[in-house]
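This section describes the prediction task in plain terms. A model, or a person checking by hand, is given the sequence of a single protein chain and must write out its three-dimensional structure as a string of tokens. No templates, partner chains or ligands are provided. The sample shown here is typical of the held-out split.
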Amino acid sequence: MRAIPTTKREQTRPRAGLALLVLASILVLMASVFPVAAATITIVNTDGLNEGFNDPTPAAPVGGNPGTTIGQQRLNVFTHAAGIWGGILPSSVTIRIQAAFNAQTCTATSAVLGSAGTIHVARDFPNAPFTGTWYHMALANKLAGVDLEPGVNDINATFNSNINGSPSCLGGRTWYYGFDGNEGTNIELLPVVLHEMGHGLGFSSITDEVTGAFLNGFRDIWSIFMFDTDVGLHWDQMTNQQRAASAVNSLGLVWDGPAVKTMAPILLGPRPQIVVNAPVSIAGTYFAGVASFGSPLTQGGLTGDVVLVADNTGVSSTDACEPVQNVVAGKIALIDRGNCTFTVKALNAQNAGAIGVIVADNVVASAPPSMGGSDPSVTIKVASLTQADGNTIKGQLGNGVNATLSLDPNLLAGANAQYQVFLYAPNPLESGSSVSHYDRSALPDLLMEPALSTALSSGVDLTRYHFEDIGWLPRTTDVADYGTRARFWGGAPNPFALATTVRFDLSRTERVDLVIYDVAGRLVRRLASGPMDPGSYTVLWDGTDDRGQTVAPGVYFSVFDGAGKRETQRLVRIR
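The expected answer:
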């Protein structure tokens, strides 16, 4: 066993990441145990009297959280998150997470939300799938079938108690302790806890991303699946120097695990893009970010000439934080990020007659920013570019730039053409975030990206399959052609409001299981099970679970097991 001294922290604008923290002392030891169907996860409260989990400040129950004090609501969120992960990950060994709320860095515009990680790692234990390979402690215990360090906690987590409504911290935002995703302008604690627990359970590299050196000369389980598409090598095949270079190879460092590659085309959407049609010198396809407001991008796209806005007032004359003064009517408005919200920029451009908006980032980043906010009055299409790509377009505006804002149905947002999901590898390196997250280009937003999205709440999306790759779960994602034995047609209509039908054909008698799962991998409804004769079958799913209760709108998966193979299709239930 080996202790891990590295600390990685969750930064926010409003989210980023961390892993692997050692806590030197425990102030008060109180345990809250949450028994679940698979793993049992224990929250060990290390807060002192009247602080953190022990804060006695009265609070009204909110969003399904019945706690009546701030401290109890915080502990309930951790317990709820433990239940979600415990229901997904099987282990006969109790997982112990020591946790506390303490003062951490917070300014008016950014904050450390929290930090977490495995306290120790282990290798060459009984039943280890790979020799000479480090595993996070909770995973090592699971694989060994015994507690390799009896009485020692597995994961440490610290969250920021300064996020409490003070104007000096994130402009007065505070933690939201509900379970329902209705945080408004505040910060929902649940997805942040799920994210940080994910790091401690195994979603992080143990390799030194600065030097590329393995811990004590031994690889970790991540290095087997981290692949650099430029050099064509996995991390466990590289030298230290090659790994250090790969850690800053944005969109070239990918996760090559089979489970994630199988599920990527199911969970990720089409890639947003800005295609520059003219001039020829910069023509081509550029990665684009999308907005949570305005008209969504489409495959057909929106085409127009691009004009840089001029508002001639305020901090910047090109940020559209004030009414636009130059002619953008019938054009796509190019706007610099910063100094006001994305919705204000878009509305000012729309009011001036713009048919679309491109926001150019104002900081160096590997991927264009996702743009949050809500304003029903914004109806035009809004996309974003990196600072570098924005500068490229600005440099050619005098030659007449024409562009199309669209979706590429042949590529995934957050993955390459081989369905290998991009890992976060910006240049320069971001210690504590680089390598141990998915890239920010993924859409829909993923739990383990390095920035918090308001679209996240209780789902764990691709992380469940990432954990399958590293050994937490048995392989269940084989997707293959059924040939003449079976054919799975999926569901129609899709999306659906009230009901959908799932079709499959059998050419001979086969044992079939047809099951609906939610995005967290929990069983929702078993539609068929047992031997079935040859023929064509149409099975109705009326949007209810096995208890007869109507499920919430969202993404679900119909999973067909038959003829020795498994196939999955995403189903979307709408309101």
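For orientation: Residues 1-37, 477-484 have pLDDT under 50 and may be disordered.
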